[in-house]
């Protein structure tokens, strides 16, 4: 299927590895010029080089998306290098509690406001900053695609991840509201909800690409939470996500807006 994306311009946040990286590569394979955003310059430039190696055009958009001025500067530089932004993918997000503390996340009553702020700043304000930066141009051109990558924790809630669940739920509520506000401007806004995803940025544990149900007991147990994973004998990988992003970024999905689509192997069904 020709998605007719050739010549479009995308800005993808958190794109230096994992799901974001794969989204960039697959959009580029469809002919999209890609602004690769990451906090770390070398990660962004590595993905740019990968895109250029397959004949695509890309720009390293290094910025901390929690900082509004950095976002506006990065968007302006990307548009100067590639052209007006047609597609925004709000992919950046991190599970701060687990990655900093290790092991099970704490209960909400055991957390502090500093930790809440880090989670909300990245997952909510980062998204808001990026949307605010691209929406005026999309409105003026009467065309645009915004895709938020959230977690199933935001659709179902997850114990010990209360603030994270709330922040991800905000991504969904915001997307629905913006879809209503800007449908008249032919701007589609949708959300993809993920469960556990294995990718190259994770070096050890159940989510590492080298882990299998045979060599990792925790992974074997995790598969039971995802109906399709029991059959496939694996968790989601970035390629499971990037194809849906490409579809939603195209006019093949022109009549899809304000929707949340789970790519989580049936972890949440609704």
From TrEMBL:
PROSITE patterns reported in the protein's UniProt record: ADH_SHORT
GO molecular function terms noted in the UniProt entry: oxidoreductase activity, acting on the CH-OH group of donors, NAD or NADP as acceptor
Example of a GO biological process term: fatty acid elongation
SUPFAM superfamilies documented for this protein: NAD(P)-binding Rossmann-fold domains
PANTHER family to which the protein is assigned, alphabetical: OXIDOREDUCTASE, SHORT-CHAIN DEHYDROGENASES/REDUCTASES FAMILY MEMBER
Family to which this protein belongs: Belongs to the short-chain dehydrogenases/reductases (SDR) family.
Protein name: Short-chain dehydrogenase/reductase SDR
Species of origin: Verminephrobacter eiseniae (strain EF01-2)
């Amino acid at each position: 299927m020709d998605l007719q994306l050739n010549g479009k311009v995308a800005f993808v946040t958190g794109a230096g590895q994992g799901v974001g990286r794969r989204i960039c590569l697959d959009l580029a394979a469809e002919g999209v010029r890609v602004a690769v955003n990451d906090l770390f310059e070398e990660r962004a430039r590595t993905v740019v080089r990968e895109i250029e190696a397959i004949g695509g055009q890309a720009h390293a958009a290094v910025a901390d998306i929690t900082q509004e001025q950095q976002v506006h500067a990065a968007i302006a530089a990307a548009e100067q290098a590639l052209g007006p932004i047609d597609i925004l993918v709000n992919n950046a997000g991190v599970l701060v509690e687990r990655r900093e503390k290790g092991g099970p996340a704490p209960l909400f009553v055991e957390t502090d406001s500093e930790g809440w702020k880090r989670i909300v700043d990245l997952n909510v304000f980062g998204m808001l900053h990026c949307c605010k930066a691209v929406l005026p141009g999309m409105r003026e051109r009467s065309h645009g695609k915004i895709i938020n990558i959230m977690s199933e924790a935001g659709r179902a809630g997850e114990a010990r991840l209360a603030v994270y669940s709330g922040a991800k739920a905000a991504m969904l509520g915001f997307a629905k509201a913006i879809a209503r506000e800007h449908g008249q401007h032919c701007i589609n806004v949708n959300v993809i909800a993920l469960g556990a995803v294995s990718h190259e940025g994770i070096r050890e544990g159940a989510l590492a690409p080298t882990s299998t149900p045979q060599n990792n007991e925790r992974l074997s147990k995790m598969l039971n939470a995802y109906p399709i994973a029991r059959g496939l004998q694996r968790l989601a990988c970035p390629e499971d996500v990037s194809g849906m992003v490409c579809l939603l970024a195209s006019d093949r999905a022109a009549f899809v807006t304000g929707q949340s689509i789970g790519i989580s192997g049936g972890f949440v069904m609704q």
